[in-house]
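Work through what follows:
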Amino acid sequence: MAHDADLITKTFVAPGGTVRYFRAVAPGRREALFIHGLGVDKSWFAVHHARYRLNFAGWVVPDLPGHGESDHPADPAAFDMEAMAAALAELLDAEGIREIVLVGHSMGGAVALALAQQLRNSGAARVAGLVLAEGNLDANDAFLSARVAAQSREDFSVCGWDALLAELAAQRGMAGYLRTLRRAGPDTLHGCSVSLVAMSRAEVTVPLVEAVDTPRLFVFGARNRGRFTSEALARRLGPVAFVPRAGHAMYVDNPAGFWSVIRAFLAGL
């Protein structure tokens, strides 16, 4: 199904199930992989690609396993950050991509770090740059996932899921997130949260970031300036940029500002 002149929806059959993704080819320009966060999906990207002229790069924008139009694996191990990264590594190989810029938002940052390590170990593709947009560098970044992971899978499915939906429904501006979250479902949310909390520790993430020996950028919403301990951590690891008039959902709060930051980063590579 075509969304604009350059963006198409494709399907990749990974060992853990089918992954659906957007693909936009931009000959002669950088290839970039955008990895979404917990309970989100790729659905918003089609409008952005046309409206904000994102053809400054070629794009791969997947629905992670259990999210959006991708399959919902029955095995909780499929929601490990490393397992999702492995599915993306195979997708990149199927696309014939040998150099990639990784852009991870929220949980997508943890997946990006796992993917960067896998690509480095396999030599299958070179990571030309890394952008972590509030991308789970330490335990304080796991503000939602920690609450979910603290419950058993059964307890969360029976009680925690409905309570979370009700809590989010009472907050302003959550309609879009609730829509994609419901599509992901409780098993996806719980499985991803358990793995994400285990990985969201500085002793795990910092060595993975430092191993990426190409340009890095850490992006925060300006409304969150000074809120996260990971901001100070990020400043020790690379440049930090802020998206004006934006919180955690920075590409929703200020899309033009967010893509301006990403565009400038890629232009500087």
Remarks:
- Residues 7-141+200-267 form a domain with the Rossmann fold fold (CATH 3.40.50.1820).
- The radius of gyration is 17 Å.
